[in-house]
Design brief:
single chain; 123 residues; mainly alpha; 6 helices
């Protein structure tokens, strides 16, 4: 396995991007607490641009969650925001689609004979 495909690296990169993917959910969470949707949308856009610049141009970690938590217009704590950053909530039908796509192939492969340890090719 190559280093960038390890579960910890994948999760780290996913969590760095998740605040951008969850921005609408964060905004609606703040609207439910009485925030103005249009104002929050603009503030969220500004926070996203600043956080994105920090990540892409300066090589620093994504601080979008901290920016939003520090902004009184949102009325959200860091903990409330992070509680909504659940990767599984943003994948849609991907797990089922992968299963549907790979299932026929996997069942075909499982019926193939196992190559001998000294063999470099499959039978």
């Amino acid at each position: 396995m190559v280093w960038w495909c390890t579960p910890k690296v994948v999760r780290s990169r996913l969590m760095a991007e998740l605040p951008f993917m969850a921005s609408e959910n964060i905004m609606m969470q703040a609207v439910e607490k009485g925030g103005n949707r249009q104002e929050l949308h603009e503030r969220l856009r500004q926070h996203a641009i600043a956080a994105g610049k920090q990540v892409k141009e300066e090589g620093l970690p994504n601080d979008m969650v901290d920016r939003i938590a520090a902004d009184p217009a949102f009325g959200l704590t860091r903990e409330e925001i992070v509680a909504g950053l659940v990767p599984e909530n943003f994948v849609g039908r991907a797990p089922q689609q992968v299963e549907e796509f790979t299932s026929p192939m996997c069942s075909s492969l499982s019926s193939m004979p196992t190559p001998m340890p000294w063999s470099s090719t499959h039978p």
